[in-house]
Amino acid sequence: MDPIVIVGGDAAGMSAASKFKRERPEREVVVFERGEYVSYAACGMPYYVKGAVDSLDDLVTVTPEAFVEERGIDLRLHHEVVELRPDKHEVVVEGPEGRLTQPYDQLLVATGAHAVVPPFEGMDLDGVFTMHSLPEADAVRDYLAFEEPETVGVVGGGYIGIEMAEAFREHDVEVHVFEMLPHVMAPFGETVAEAVEEELRRQGVHLHLDTAVERFVGDDSVTGIDVGGAVYDVELALVGVGVAPNTDLAASAGIELGETGAVATDEYGRTSRSGVFAAGDVAEARHAVTGEPDHVPLALTANRAGRAIGQTMAGDETPVGEIAGTAVVKAFDLTAARTGVIDEEQARGAGFDPVSVTITASSRAHYYPGAEELTITMLGDRVSGRVLGATMVGREGVAKRIDTVAVALHEGATAEELSYYDLAYAPPFSPVWDPVLTAAKVLDGKLG
Ligand SMILES: Cc1cc2nc3c(=O)[nH]c(=O)nc-3n(C[C@H](O)[C@H](O)[C@H](O)COP(=O)(O)OP(=O)(O)OC[C@H]3O[C@@H](n4cnc5c(N)ncnc54)[C@H](O)[C@@H]3O)c2cc1C
User: Which residues are catalytic?
Assistant: First the structure.
């Protein structure tokens, strides 16, 4: 029988390969990875640049050698798949030994996403970086060490931009963040954004909102960022304006894309072509609240879907699971988090009648030292009483509280039900009514 073939050797691809091989050790699994790293934690790159993580190797979860020797996976580094031929059940690959054709029994497309490169003049100048691969993280850290820039410009106030602003400030450089929208971190809503903006300013970051970058200035190396009307001097620029799924391969093979632009998949990760699956940043997944396909490129989604598809390919059909868009970000001393549908317009578009409440509560019992304020915005549906989503921001206790709401979303819980969840309490960790319970209670009251 032909092998299982996987394109892309990171979170989704290696999870699938490992799971399949565990289930069916007698079968052959071939993974093609065009780079030199597999199973790496891109999420850790800002902390590598910051210096909190010493070595790039620390970001590699399982080494290529371990995949080959311990897990028996036929892993081919520096091999780029250049064509999928679903009709013939084969892929065309370019590697160090030239071009080859590889037949497959079942195929997983796990090609991930890429950093969006805006069409700015000067993107090719030395000192202008995106942040999507380990070599890029290494290049930024080297540039900081050897060129010793005094001023850095971060283009884009999304979560990668904010994490990188913190990383740069750790090196004692001046940091400018340019965001074309009125607020940073748009998917987290205005309350969170305003708190993060205040924190950025408190940490000495120069924040330029409503400011669209037009081009980078410089001869060989970047020396400035032109925002149309003003040029800010910078000696390093980090562009973090979003990611887009790597769909070219799939699209040219006639595999259907969804409305989000990512590969359309069913609940088992199957694409429109027989025997071809897609998972991770390249693929859509069903949203737990709206029930609609969505594209939220995050690590757990990729790991989970890869693992489930490995199991399905081994003969045990396993759904890839729904997503709630649950995310948490460290913004200097603040934690910002979100889950579900938090935008009223989006909620209305999905057929809900949204009502929202915002509460501020204490992270610990009010008498216990070290308590911090925590702000929660929670959205519910007036018709069903269901919780639709929440955002949270504060200096402690945010990261795991958002997960409580995420669980409620997966359960389809109403605000009333969530307000009666039996959550843990002791004074150093929460008030007796945890802020999540309080927010749900207030929301329930408003839903009527
Ligand atoms: C800076 C940064 C910070 C992040 N922080 C977080 C975080 O805190 N939390 C979180 O949940 N997520 C975070 N993410 C997102 C997370 O890293 C991704 O969701 C996850 O890596 C997706 O895994 P994947 O396997 O789908 O794709 P990828 O990790 O993109 O891997 C795809 C692989 O496919 C290979 N490939 C592509 N095309 C081909 C081809 N034609 N032939 C062979 N190989 C190919 C690529 O080289 C790549 O190795 C972060 C991402 C970045 C960049």
Answer: 43
